[in-house]
Amino acid sequence: MSSITATDLKRFAYCPLIPYYEKVMGIEERVTEAMKEGSAVDVEVAINFVRPRPVQVFKKPLLSWKGVTGSPDFLLMFQDSASPLEVKSSREKRRDHRLQLELYCLLAERSYRVRKGYLYYPARRELVTLPYGEEERREVLRSLDSLKRVLREGAKVRQPARKCVNCGYLRYCRPKFEGGVAYAES
């Protein structure tokens, strides 16, 4: 199995079966315009709300640790710390965005002092600052362990049906819908 990426963890937080289909079954999701949007955002637009201003900005740096890799949209360098900044095309703040950012923080802290990360939502012109500390570190490590377990053993999923409606894996997954809930397994 290839390394685990921050995108794998984000997708896992959205639906545990997505990384299973990709990593175990070898089914690739098509790249959408929304996925490309983070790379297209001008750095000055993305960091416009960040105070204090970073002294240096790296675009798409590759971070890695123990077989886990990730490239946040930006890594902001301050006098005494670094903070990943991830751009999201969604209009809503979601747990999977937060978890992906926490993993970028974990990866960045292997080389830098990290105390927070940022999510930028261009459609809302909103920058969300998220603290990063021991609690967030534990959460992301637990989530990585859960993801690894699903990749080894598969999973059963029960989640809101609205998550499944536009999923690129719907035709492989074929969940059973009961009311507003979807049930599926690998």
From TrEMBL:
Cofactor(s) named in the record: iron-sulfur cluster; Mn(2+); Mg(2+); [4Fe-4S] cluster
Gene Ontology process terms (BP): defense response to virus
Highest taxon of the lineage: Archaea
Keywords (A to Z) from UniProt: Antiviral defense, Exonuclease, Hydrolase, Iron, Iron-sulfur, Manganese, Metal-binding, Nuclease
Protein name as annotated: CRISPR-associated exonuclease Cas4
UniProt keyword Cell wall biogenesis/degradation present: no
Pfam families from the UniProt entry: Cas_Cas4
Annotated function: CRISPR (clustered regularly interspaced short palindromic repeat) is an adaptive immune system that provides protection against mobile genetic elements (viruses, transposable elements and conjugative plasmids). CRISPR clusters contain sequences complementary to antecedent mobile elements and target invading nucleic acids. CRISPR clusters are transcribed and processed into CRISPR RNA (crRNA).
UniProt entry tagged with the keyword Heme: no
Similarity-based family: Belongs to the CRISPR-associated exonuclease Cas4 family.
InterPro entries: Cas4_exonuclease, CRISPR-assoc_prot_Cas4, Dna2/Cas4_DUF83, PDDEXK-like_dom_sf
EC class name: hydrolase
Location of the DUF83 domain: 6-174
Enzyme Commission number, as recorded: 3.1.12.1
